[in-house]
Structures are given as C-alpha cells and as structure tokens.
Amino acid sequence: MTPSSPIILNSDRLSVEIARPGALYAGTRFDWSGFITQVTLDGRHTFCVPEDYRPGQGTGGIGLCNEFGIDMPVGFEGTQPGDLFPKLGIGLLTRLDKPDYSFWYPHKVAQPFPIEVEASTSSVTFTVQPLECRGYAARLVKTISVSGNRLAIQYRLENTGSQPITTNEYVHNFVGIDRQPIGPAYGFAFLQEVAYEPGMMHNVEVLAPDGCDLTFRRDLEAPFYVRLANLAASRQPQWVLVHRPSGVTISETVDFAPSRLALWGTAHVISAEVFHDIHLQPGQTDAWRREYEFYG
C-alpha cells in the first residue's frame, strides 16, 4: 500500500473508497478528511460521480465530500488580504484581495492541518488536529463505518481556541446511480413537508413538484438549484433518490434538525445538501451523525 492509495472499507454488501488526505483532492473547498470517492453496492451498483467530467472545471468534488463554512467561514471577518484564516478540515488559508469569501476563489493553503488516520476493514477515523490562528482553533474527529447496506459518518468538533466558532457543515453528495443521466428515470422524495425558499429556485422549470416529491420532466441539460426550509429532526431519511428502471436507491438520515436543505444537479449528477449549523464557545464540543442507506 502506497501513501496515496485509497482506504477501502468493506461490509457484506458495500465497498467504500476513501481518498487519503491531500492525495486525490488538495483544494480549498472540501474537507480533506473522509473524502469518499465511490460506494459500490453488491459489487454491481455505483453511486459516486465527479462534480464535472471536464478537466479543470468545477471545484474538484467527487462522491460524498463535505464542506465547512460555505457561507459562514471561521475567522474570515476582520482579516485583511494576506492574513490567515482557518478552513475546517483543510488548514490555514491566505485571504485574497477580495471583499468577501467564496469557495470559487483559488485560495492558497498556507499550512495544512495535521491529519491522523486509523483504519480497519470496516471503519476509519480521521483526527484533524488544530492549528491556532488569531484565537481560532478546533479539533475534528470523523469516523466513517460500514455495516450491511449502511454507511455512517460520525463527527465530533471541539473548539480548542479562545474565540467562538460559528459555521456550518454539509455533504455535497455528488450522486449519479450507475452513471445514468439525470432525468425522468429518477425520482426524488422528501419524507416530510418542506417549503421552497423564494428567490432560491433556479432553472426549476425542469422540475415538477408533486407533494413532497420532485419529478424530472426531461433529461437535464442546464444546472438547477433549489433551496428548501421548514425542516425538522426526523428518524426518517431527509431525502430519498431512486433510479426507477433499476430500483436502485440511496437515502440520507441525520440526527439533527437541518438548518436548510439544498438540491443541485445537472446532466450527470444530482446532489442533496443537508446543512448542520454549528455554534461553539471555547471549550465546547458538538457531535452529529449522518447515515446513508443503499438499496438495489
């Protein structure tokens, strides 16, 4: 095994490939720890696809990859161009000469966070050690495990600094079941009543809402984006995606009340993003869990 070879987790039904921190992805958007590049069910069905197949396009996302602070960056406020600020799961970034933070900007990683990895055949734990930056510091422990047809991600974030941490976390979920194009063959369901946020529905003419379900009227060509609110904690999945001809399905269940849910997609990929808001005073810890279930 080489330092760049992926971590492989196995159950009796799932095989999960996870990139080693900084090996496959070394960008400044997605968390380097637990970067899940493929999930295979029963040796037949795959779920993870790249954000964009075109070289150099997109932000480098693949499969089930999470991001901290897409619009709530830790320690960015009050910095000047050239100052450092922490991007959780990655390291200390150098602020660009821009008025606002955006994941689209090509930030420089001034110093990556040290990441320790402990793996077994069915689970792996990533410990992202803190680097203090103007009073901001946090230790992230993420454990990914598989059992049967389920994949679980357990998070523990501890504020080890002297400044409060206010941010959010979500998993982008770049999914294309068996690489089938996104269109009428797919069905997307929410198992609770949701509200569509006005002004956050782009290219929705390709969607036909039916109660809590979304049906694609035709194969997608242009990207779409929908943001939903009015979400609550639930023991049921927050969302379910099915490829109707094959019956292959993926769902995500969380143990927190989401602050919002966003749905994005284009011709080859669809992504549901369940957001968790984080507010930590110095010394406080937050823990949360996501569980994916795969059927075929």
Describe this structure in words.
- The protein is mainly β.
- The protein contains no helices and 23 strands.
- Strand 1 (7-10) and strand 2 form a beta hairpin.
- It is globular, with a radius of gyration of 19 Å.
- The model has no long low-confidence stretch (mean pLDDT 93).
Give start-end ranges of low-pLDDT stretches: none
What is the N-to-C succession of helices and strands? EEEEEEEEEEEEEEEEEEEEEEE
The residue fraction in helices comes out at under 10%
The CATH level-2 architecture is identified as: Distorted Sandwich
Number of domains: 1
The number of distinct β-strands equals 23
- The separation of the N and C termini measures 31 Å
Structural class: mainly beta
Relative strand content = over 45%
Basic shape: globular
Give, in spatial order, the strands making up the sheet with the most strands: 9-10-11-12-23-20-19-14-17-16
Number of helices: 0
CATH topology call: Beta-galactosidase, Chain A, domain 5
Question: Which CATH first-tier class would you pick?
Answer: Mainly Beta
Secondary structure: elements and pairs:
Layout: E1 7-10, E2 14-19, E3 35-41, E4 45-46, E5 66-68, E6 84-87, E7 91-94, E8 108-112, E9 115-119, E10 123-128, E11 138-147, E12 150-159, E13 165-171, E14 186-189, E15 195-202, E16 207-210, E17 213-216, E18 224-229, E19 239-243, E20 248-254, E21 260-266, E22 269-280, E23 285-295
Antiparallel strand pairs: 1-2, 2-3, 3-4, 5-13, 6-7, 7-8, 9-10, 10-11, 11-12, 12-23, 13-22, 14-17, 14-19, 15-18, 16-17, 18-21, 19-20, 20-23, 21-22
